[in-house]
Amino acid sequence: MADHTTPPSDQLAATALNDDVSASTVKKHQFSDRVLIRSIVSRPDGGAGLAGQRVRVGGWVKTGREQGKGSFAFLEVNDGSCPANLQVIVDASVADLAQLVQTGTSVSVEGLLKNPPEGTKQKVELRVEKVIDMGPVDPAKYPIPKTKLTLEFLRDRIHFRPRTNTISAVARIRNALAFATHTFFQEHGFLYVHTPIVTTSDCEGAGEMFQVTTLINEAERVEKELIKNPPPSEADIEAANLVVKEKAETVNKLKSDKADKAVIKASVAELTKAKETVAKLVERSKLKPGIPQKDGKIDYGQDFFGRQAFLTVSGQLQVETYACAVSNVYTFGPTFRAENSHTSRHLAEFWMVEPEIAFADLKDDMNCAEAYVKFMCHWLLDKCLDDMEFMAKNYDKTCIDRLRMVASTPFERISYTEAVELLLVAVKEGKKFENAVEWGIDLASEHERYLTEVKFQKPVIVYNYPKGIKAFYMRVNDDLKTVAAMDVLVPKVGELIGGSQREERIDIIKDRILEMGLPLEPYEWYLDLRRFGTVKHCGFGLGFERMILFATGIDNIRDVIPFPRYPGRADL
Question: Less packed terminus of the chain by CB within 10 Å, N or C?
Answer without folding.
Answer: N
